[in-house]
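From the shared-data thread, chain only:
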Amino acid sequence: MHFSIQLSAYYPDKSYGGDRVYRDMLEQARCADRCGYESVGITEHHLINILMMPAPLQFAVKIASQTENVKIITAVSVLPLHDMRILAGELVCADIFTDQRLMVGVGRGAFGFEMKRMGVPLETSREKFDESLNVLQALLAEEEVSWDGKYYQFDPLTIMPRPVSDIPIMMAVLVPEAIYHCTKRGFHIQTTPLSGDHQHMLDQVNAFNRGKEELGDAGAHQTLSLSRVTFLSHSKADRKRKIQLAHDYYSRFDNVFTGPGIVESGMIKPLPRKMTVEQTAENLTICTPTEMIDKLAPMPRPGSIALS
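Structure, as tokens:
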């Protein structure tokens, strides 16, 4: 098992300042590097105050300039929001500038509010993502690529500079059966049970392992990055406060992920949750050191577990 951390980009109070948010994230990355973490994750989200990072590749380069060993994962680059002819070149440059420590997680977008206002509603983002991924892979692997699809039509071109080496691509997937099929296609996998229960997490891990085993030697290199909200508290009282903070966070997350998407001036409105605070506490890994050992003991060993 390796450990990773998704850098926190939560901005519930505008008066705190975006500059302070990103300084905090940079310090988290430096700390992860010093402590021997395998990787750090950077989200891509626009127009909202959770997972707030509209420039993940720029930030990846910044992190690389202040760390030595930690890998830097985009979690995720939202392909339907980008032109692959531009993004491919940006990825090559970011890979060079980070000394080949970049791993590119890709996805189709998750929040209806954000995607609709960026001109790619979720109803069409899956189709555009599939074509965008095919275009991106072709541009990174081949020269003089031409395309005649629904979303891309262009004459032969070659992105420059050429990749120094293969840039690892990780597929962001939540549904276990989809994890299985993406693994069978040869992708590294990023997933999370969000605030779901332990069994759902096991189903995700088992789906990855099933796909990897069926690939045999061809899947030996594949990794699973499993993100689970985790916090090491110093006392029972601190644990209680952190659980409430997590519950409040999810009251905003649920609004834009599965809810109505009520956002005012960039701030997501917290809405009442169907899940109780007690259920949130049960499903997340927020606990004291002794409890943490007990919580981690039954964790599956998929290769890489990302603790947020």
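The domain at 3-172 is CATH 3.20.20.30 (TIM Barrel).
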